[in-house]
């Protein structure tokens, strides 16, 4: 009788395992929705378009971008958190959504490592520090002197409270002793619009659009926040090169799925991202946009997030930023 029960248990376990593999093999069975917590037109949107267009070829289903902007990416994160954990809804998020918000918001409705499953890190993203071209400076050192002579008169725009475009200028202010006024926007696109119009004078934003607008003369890039110069802005020095020691801040992009998504489905998605990012033209286009291709699979991405969260929590604490 005991042996019979054991055979039944083994058979059921095998059936369950086969069902899981069968489910992963069949996935996806419908279009995949990539939710993004920011408006269209920003650097995260460019990154999404670059990868999703090619991703659907590998997965055999359309991959659609769905914009759910608001609260520094929190609205989009909640949308994904509440979605069915079947792999058909993903979140494309940046540093702010994944590791800054948990340290910034006292009542955040999600926990990155509890409510999501990491799928793939796709890029590391340095920022550019830039000004409106009418600001009479040609270098970061000149801007520091200019701003110090005008305390409280220089406004800086950001893509919203709590993101890297908010915190990096705060770190820059702390490193230089500047007093600038923060003007938050609903996404980087309207912030860029006001920077180009002169409504704000300074901005720190990821390089894809910064490089494009700099080359068009619509903004003036003064420095990049990575340790080495960026190929999209090869003539622009790093902040460290300008004399501000150890100022290195690099964000990242990645895809996550709702918690409970089967491991086999996560692995299939991760493999698809890896295949797309191994294509030389995709990597070249990412570099041209200012993003450094930096693929990590699901397990390694989870480990990366585990180390990044306390690091950014320390940055938030030192900046004094806090949102309810």
Describe the secondary-structure layout:
Elements: H1 2-26, E1 32-36, H2 43-59, E2 63-67, H3 74-81, E3 89-94, H4 95-104, H5 112-115, E4 116-131, H6 140-148, E5 155-158, H7 164-176, E6 181-184, H8 188-197, E7 202-206, H9 207-215, E8 220-224, E9 250-258, H10 263-277, H11 280-289, E10 292-296, H12 298-319
Parallel strand pairs: 1-2, 1-3, 5-6, 5-7
Antiparallel strand pairs: 3-9, 4-7, 4-8, 4-9, 4-10
Helix pairs in contact: 2-10, 2-11, 4-12
Would you give an account of this structure?
Helix content is 47%, strand content 20%. With 324 residues, it is an alpha/beta fold. The protein has 2 domains: 164 residues, D-Maltodextrin-Binding Protein, domain 2, CATH 3.40.190.150; 99 residues, Periplasmic binding protein-like II (D-Maltodextrin-Binding Protein, domain 2, 3-Layer(aba) Sandwich), CATH 3.40.190. Helix 2 crosses helix 10, helix 2 runs antiparallel to helix 11 and helix 4 packs across helix 12. It is globular, with a radius of gyration of 22 Å.
Number of strand elements: 10
Q: What is the CATH architecture annotation of the largest domain?
A: 3-Layer(aba) Sandwich
- State the domain count: 2
How confident overall, as mean pLDDT? 89
Distance between the termini: 61 Å
DSSP helical segment count: 12
Under CATH, the topology of the largest domain can be stated as D-Maltodextrin-Binding Protein, domain 2
Instruction: Pick out the low-confidence regions.
Output: 8-12, 15-21
Summarize the helix and strand pattern as letters. HEHEHEHHEHEHEHEHEEHHEH
> What's the CATH class label of the largest domain?
Alpha Beta
Bulk shape? globular
How would a textbook summarize the main sheet?
Answer: 10 strands, mixed
The proportion of strand residues reads 15-25%
